[in-house]
């Protein structure tokens, strides 16, 4: 491509980028940050996270200033459009800006154009240009500042041009920081080097550049502090956010393990290109380009490192790399290095290679953008449908959906003229307690619930009382497009008054057990309460758990209304207790507590209550018996499970008719070189056999007569098992099958 065609090609590329995105503007907000931005456009208050600290005042100001073009900030739908449009415009501007940046670093125009094409085709870049977030706008202004300072350092322009460029670059760096604070890592190093080492710039110009940067920062800092209670009020809000960032997310700085480091590199360098394989190809080509640049233009490589390495280090160490969009700035240097390698094949072949690679990258990005613009985000769709279906029912959510609910209440009141949605503001991590208190006050009330499927606290309620009404998932792969989005998937339930509900002090899942441990609870510390709904009929109560030791044999007691229902002793290890409840025991209206306590003669007993159920006659119950290990949970994967040993037993309540047992688990091939032979038996007779070679959901019908003869025991046997101790760990458990879910019907 000749010199005179480069700039028209850039203009055409930017126009096509803009035209390809406008038809797919999102129908709703999505990430919690986007809700915070939208609330900030309506009512700026950093202390209320409108938006979240550090406040993004320039970004909010830009969107506010443009709102008359979209219908005004009083219209929630217009705010969503305005936020997204700024991302689209910024993405289109970044096409020529990346060209100017690489041209300023010493690239010829052809290579800089190829790099701009690869940047715009990158799936993460293409998709993020639609999201109602500050990432694209902040990057656009930061790259503009980088392009100017790079041109000053390499002397692309004349002396007079250098002076103007340096002053404008300083101002843009200050403005970028008010759009997105992380841009300081992109702009400050090059600006500092330009002020210190630029050859053709006077001392006065250097001073003016620093003044321009400081002045631009003051232009948004002073109003920001004034609007948020002065320096003290703002720092308090900022400190609270910093505390959440360091305790609520997985980052390499606080979790220094090889696995987290590998995940950080994969999320930051490979996934932005659409997949690990595509990313590996692009990064490998970029590595070849880095070697070529080091040999031919070492100064350009140094400038590139200065422009992006500080941000890369900050991102890898201090940001949650599972949020893939945080890696957006790293797309630029990888694209330029890849273009540098492609240049080795010659001009015509380079055009073909760049076009082919861009087309391959664009395929996934375009499909994801179309889907994104056609459907609301799962959380918003779930809340909308819950509000529409529940009529006058109050709406409860896990705390991750709280901002979603806030925004939908605003939109509903705008559309209906009044607030029709009544929502609960439940505390994070202990949301179930809000429902417990509601049902204690109003035992006949039903509640609509939008829940996070990665959470496990719904196990604290009678499963017979909840009905799944809808599941909501992203129609696109979360990585790379919305990786790390909060909230993500959602489930919608109708929660009828449960037959029982559990208060504090339980450990039915690792998540709930962690809350109990953090609170210093458990039956050995204070009574663990189960609230039982009034009933006249007989029932069966089941409670299971583990004596964790520390006090030898423990004595457990269940009491109700001052009367002991049951007392039993358990040695250290697993226990399962089944207690028949006579008719009339829980007669009455509302909920009454059964208190479970644990003690030992020697003192120091520690007991975890891992199972509970209570059902009337004829209702199936399934419980983990011998051979099952404690519940586990992986927060990063949002997955809960129990390990089964080579021989494990499920107790299924005999109800006089056949039942269907369902097991869902992980592929054993992750741990073994062949699929295991798994047998299910009851009363010594085989009822099912399977050889799982992938993730599985297995159903087995258990005949009523075998269940009766075997006393309810269903035995699961696997011919393959391992112990982590064989790989050098201290864990001596026998592990055969990792089971996610067990149900009976």
Distance between the termini: 69 Å
Q: How confident overall, as mean pLDDT?
A: 90
Number of helices: 22
What is the radius of gyration?
30 Å
Low-pLDDT residue spans: 242-247
Approximate helicity band? 40-55%
Overall number of strands: 22
Features:
5-stranded antiparallel β-sheet; 46% helix
Outline the structure in words.
This protein has 745 residues and is of the alpha+beta class. It has 22 helices and 22 strands. The strands form five sheets. It has a five-stranded antiparallel beta sheet. β8 and β9 (563-570) form a beta hairpin. α2 (32-42) crosses α4 (76-104). It starts with a helix and ends with a strand. Residues 242-247 have low confidence and may be disordered.
Write the layout of secondary structure elements.
Blueprint: H1 3-21, H2 32-42, H3 57-66, H4 76-104, H5 109-121, H6 123-128, H7 135-154, H8 159-179, H9 184-197, H10 203-226, H11 230-248, H12 258-270, H13 276-296, H14 298-318, H15 331-342, H16 347-374, H17 378-390, E1 395-397, H18 402-416, H19 431-441, E2 447-451, E3 466-472, H20 478-481, E4 490-495, E5 500-502, H21 510-519, E6 528-533, E7 539-547, E8 554-560, E9 563-570, E10 573-581, E11 591-599, E12 607-616, E13 622-624, E14 632-634, E15 639-644, E16 647-652, E17 659-665, E18 678-682, E19 685-690, E20 696-702, H22 704-709, E21 713-718, E22 737-744
Parallel strand pairs: 1-2
Antiparallel strand pairs: 2-4, 3-4, 5-6, 6-11, 7-10, 7-12, 8-9, 8-11, 13-16, 14-15, 15-22, 16-21, 17-20, 17-22, 18-19, 18-21
């Amino acid at each position: 491509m000749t010199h005179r065609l480069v700039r028209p090609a850039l203009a055409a590329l930017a126009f096509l980028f803009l035209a390809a995105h406008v038809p797919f503007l999102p129908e709703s907000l999505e990430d919690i940050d986007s809700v915070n931005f939208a609330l900030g456009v309506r009512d700026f208050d950093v202390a209320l996270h409108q938006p979240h600290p550090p406040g993004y005042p320039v970004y909010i100001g830009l969107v506010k200033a443009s709102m008359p073009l979209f219908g005004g900030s009083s219209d929630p739908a217009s705010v969503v459009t305005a936020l997204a449009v700024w991302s689209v415009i910024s993405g289109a501007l970044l096409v020529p800006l990346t060209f100017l940046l690489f041209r300023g670093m010493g690239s010829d125009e052809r290579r800089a154009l190829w790099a701009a094409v690869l940047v715009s085709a990158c799936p993460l870049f293409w998709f993020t240009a639609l999201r109602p977030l500050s990432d694209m706008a902040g990057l656009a202004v930061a790259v503009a500042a980088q392009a100017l300072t790079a041109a000053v350092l390499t002397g692309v322009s004349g002396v007079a041009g250098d002076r103007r460029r340096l002053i404008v670059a300083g101002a843009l760096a200050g403005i970028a920081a008010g759009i997105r604070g992380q841009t300081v890592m992109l702009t400050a190093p090059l600006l500092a080097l330009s002020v210190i080492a630029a050859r053709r710039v006077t001392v006065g110009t250097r001073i003016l550049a620093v003044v321009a940067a400081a002045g631009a920062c003051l232009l948004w800092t002073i109003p920001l502090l004034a609007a948020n209670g002065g320096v003290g009020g703002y720092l308090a809000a900022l400190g609270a956010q910093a505390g959440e960032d360091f305790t609520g997310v997985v980052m390499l700085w606080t979790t220094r393990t090889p696995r987290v480091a590998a995940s950080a590199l994969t999320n930051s360098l490979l996934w932005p290109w659409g997949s690990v394989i595509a990313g590996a190809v692009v990064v490998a080509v970029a590595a070849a380009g880095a070697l070529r640049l080091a040999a031919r233009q070492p100064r350009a490589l140094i400038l590139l490192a200065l422009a992006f390495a500080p941000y890369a280090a900050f991102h890898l160490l201090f940001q949650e790399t599972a949020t893939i969009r945080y890696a957006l700035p790293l797309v630029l240097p990888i694209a330029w290095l890849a273009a540098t390698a492609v240049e080795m094949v010659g001009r015509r072949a380079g055009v073909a290679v760049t076009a082919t690679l861009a087309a391959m990258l664009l395929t996934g990005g375009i499909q994801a953008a179309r889907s994104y613009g056609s459907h609301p985000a799962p959380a918003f769709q779930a809340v909308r449908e819950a509000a529409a279906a529940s009529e006058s029912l109050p709406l409860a959510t896990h705390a991750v959906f709280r901002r979603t609910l806030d925004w939908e209440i605003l939109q509903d009141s705008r559309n209906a003229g009044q607030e029709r949605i009544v929502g609960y503001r439940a505390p994070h991590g202990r949301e179930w307690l809000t429902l417990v208190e509601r049902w204690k006050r109003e035992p006949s009330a039903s509640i609509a619930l939008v829940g996070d499927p990665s959470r496990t606290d719904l196990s604290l309620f009678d499963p017979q009382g909840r009905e799944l009404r809808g599941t909501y998932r992203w129609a696109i792969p979360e990585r790379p497009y919305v990786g790390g989005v909060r909230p993500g998937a959602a489930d919608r339930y109708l929660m009828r008054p449960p037959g029982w509900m559990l208060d504090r002090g339980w450990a039915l899942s690792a998540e709930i057990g962690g809350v109990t441990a953090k609170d210093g609870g458990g039956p050995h510390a204070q009574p663990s309460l189960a609230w039982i709904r009034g009933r006249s009929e007989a029932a069966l109560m089941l409670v299971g758990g583990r004596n964790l030791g520390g006090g030898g044999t423990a004595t457990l007691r269940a009491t109700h209304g001052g009367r002991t229902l049951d007392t039993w002793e358990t040695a250290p290890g697993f226990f399962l207790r089944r207690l028949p409840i006579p008719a009339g025991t829980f007669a009455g209206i509302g909920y009454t507590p059964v208190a479970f306590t644990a003690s030992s003669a020697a003192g120091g007993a520690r007991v975890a209550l891992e199972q509970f159920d209570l059902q009337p006659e004829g209702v199936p119950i399934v419980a983990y018996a011998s051979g099952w290990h404690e519940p586990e949970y992986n927060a990063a994967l949002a997955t809960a499970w129990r390990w089964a040993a080579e021989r494990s037993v499920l107790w299924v309540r005999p109800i006089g008719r056949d039942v269907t047992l369902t097991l869902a688990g992980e592929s054993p091939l992750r741990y073994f070189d062949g699929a295991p032979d798994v047998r299910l038996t009851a009363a010594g007779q085989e009822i099912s056999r399977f050889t799982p070679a992938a993730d599985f959901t297995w159903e087995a019908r258990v005949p009523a007569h075998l269940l009766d003869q075997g006393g309810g025991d269903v035995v699961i046997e696997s011919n393959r098992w391992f112990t982590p101790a064989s790989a050098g760990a201290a864990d001596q458990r026998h592990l055969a099958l990792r089971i996610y879910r067990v149900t009976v019907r």
